[in-house]
Amino acid sequence: MGATASYPLDDLFSPYNLLFPMGMLAAATYRSLSAPAGAALALCGLALFLAIGLADVTGAADMDHGIRTLIFGAGLASVVAGLAALELHGMLAAPRLLSFLGDASYAIYLVHGVALAVGAKVVLALGINAAAPPWTSFALLILGGVAAGASAHVLVERPLTNALRRRAGI
User: Fold this and answer.
1) Which of 63, 69, 79, 125 suits a disulfide with 15, CB 3.0-4.6 Å?
2) pLDDT band, very low/low/confident/very high, at 2 (cuts 50, 70, 90)
3) Measured in whole angstroms, how far is the alpha carbon of residue 117 from the centre of its chain?
4) What is the pTM of this model?
5) 85 shares a domain with 48
6) Is the CB of residue 38 less than 8 Å from the CB of residue 45?
7) Are residues 23 and 74 in the same domain?
8) In Å, how far are 60, 87, 90, 117, 146 from 38, measured between CA atoms?
């Protein structure tokens, strides 16, 4: 019998936990980047992300899941830091929809799991999975998860944040 994952240690030592500090590092460093450095960092991060994805899909590299997760994360954190630096220097402007989704991202993160579970039951109950191509159910579930999180942001997170800011005098 093989070894099995052990909760809570498997969650505590998950490589996914290192993605948050990578995002923190991107947030802490983008202001210090010049526009050319930001562009170079974003391009290098994108190249790393695509190279690892291609190596993974083609089987060119047999990587441990944890290592692959960290490399993907480092690539995307670099892209985020580089693009944020370009935006800071006025060389890039995020579309309003992407800015809204960025603002709503924490609520989306918190709500998407429940929304996906409920959405999957709805898709099965309505027979969408049998009547339409698989990508249809996939797209509906993604849109439902994002819509649920965005609604939580607008209806709960934003009003609570504004109320707390007013109370704190910010």
Assistant:
1) 69
2) very low
3) 19
4) 0.72
5) yes
6) no
7) yes
8) 30, 9, 12, 39, 29
3-state secondary structure of 128: helix
Q: How many CB atoms lie within 10 A of CB 164?
A: 10
Query: Could you give the C-alpha distances from 167 to 117, 156, 157, in angstroms and in order?
Result: 36, 16, 15
Q: Which of 93, 122, 155 is the last residue of a domain?
A: 93
For 54-112, how does the pLDDT look when each residue is reduced to its tens digit (9 = 90+)? Answer: 998 898 988 898 999 999 999 999 999 999 999 999 999 989 999 999 999 999 999 99
Answer yes or no: is 76 within a domain.
yes
Which phi and psi (to 5°) does residue 127 adopt?
75, 20
List, for residues 135-149, the tens digit of each pLDDT value. 999 999 999 999 999
Residue 120: enclosing H or E segment and its boundaries? helix 105-126
| Cα gap 3→15, rounded to integer Å | 18
Question: Which range of residues forms the domain containing residue 124?
Answer: 98-168
* Tokens at 23, concatenated: 């995002």
Among 93, 117, 135, the domain-final residue is 93
In a shared domain, residues 138 and 83: no
Q: How many structural domains comprise the chain?
A: 2
